[in-house]
Amino acid sequence: MLSIKNLHASIEGKEILKGINLEVKPGEVHAIMGPNGSGKSTLASVLAGREDYTVDSGEITFKGNDLLELEADERAKEGVFLAFQYPIEIPGVTTTNFMKTALNKIREHKGLEPLDAVSFLKMMKEKMKLVEIDQALLSRSLNEGFSGGEKKRNEIFQMAMLEPTLSILDETDSGLDIDALRIVANGVNKLKNEDNATVVVTHYQRLLDYIVPDFVHVLFDGKIVKTGGKELAHKLEEKGYDWIKEEAGVA
Ligand SMILES: Nc1ncnc2c1ncn2[C@@H]1O[C@H](COP(=O)(O)OP(=O)(O)OP(=O)(O)O)[C@@H](O)[C@H]1O
């Protein structure tokens, strides 16, 4: 589904990603961990198509197409969901209206008719139940005055509504409390199926107690220096990152 080959990327002339290789198949959950400044958020931002990052070399293909050719909104229409793509506050636009527009844009791209009001409301109700979000939140202006946890819940709700093929969640510095951790984890678990995949960037081994990734990758100085299963996250929690640096010869 997603294939990253020898990806090098920089910001303001500084090379951050120094040869990333990653293969994500349908049905898989991948966790990206690593010390501060190793490039985790940069990787998520490059996948999102954020303009301040320059891809210097390498390839990213998504469902066989060149992802780097696509603008951020085109990536969304192709089924890539980036959790921090819509954190903006939009006064006067309710989450409900925002979701309706976003959803119908994706449907239009797929050659489908826009959802009528009744079907849209039915879908909203189903997904609200799934991610346990309060109706009141959806009637408020998008993200305006939302607490951190409410923003998180809203993000997972957006993910549920848009039914993406690939979700990229950057939880690195979002100050998740234990409830927000559960919201993210439950959302990912409930939305997981054999046709979609999730890449979650995290510092928290705790998050992975709830999500259970198929693969854990450790990023260090712009490269994936180790890949393992969920037990690798436990080992990191216990031992820190030094042993990995030594093992990878990058200490
Ligand atoms: N706008 C920028 N200008 C210069 N350097 C930047 C910029 N944005 C990021 N960097 C640098 O890129 C490196 C990687 O940052 P990134 O945010 O990807 O790391 P991270 O692994 O997500 O870190 P953390 O765990 O602390 O969130 C850091 O050294 C950071 O200072």
UniProtKB/TrEMBL annotation:
Q: Which InterPro entries is this protein grouped with?
A: AAA+_ATPase, ABC_transporter-like_ATP-bd, FeS-cluster_ATPase_SufC, P-loop_NTPase
The protein's matches in SMART domains, at most eight in alphabetical order, are given as: AAA
User: The organism sits in which domain of life?
Assistant: Bacteria
Name all ABC transporter domain ranges. 2-246
GO molecular function (one)? ATP hydrolysis activity
PROSITE patterns hit by this protein: ABC_TRANSPORTER_2
**CDD domains documented for this protein:** ABC_FeS_Assembly
Q: What keywords appear on the UniProt entry?
A: ATP-binding, Nucleotide-binding
Q: Is Protease one of the keywords?
A: no
The UniProt similarity line reads: Belongs to the ABC transporter superfamily. Ycf16 family.
What's the protein here called?
Fe-S cluster assembly ATPase SufC
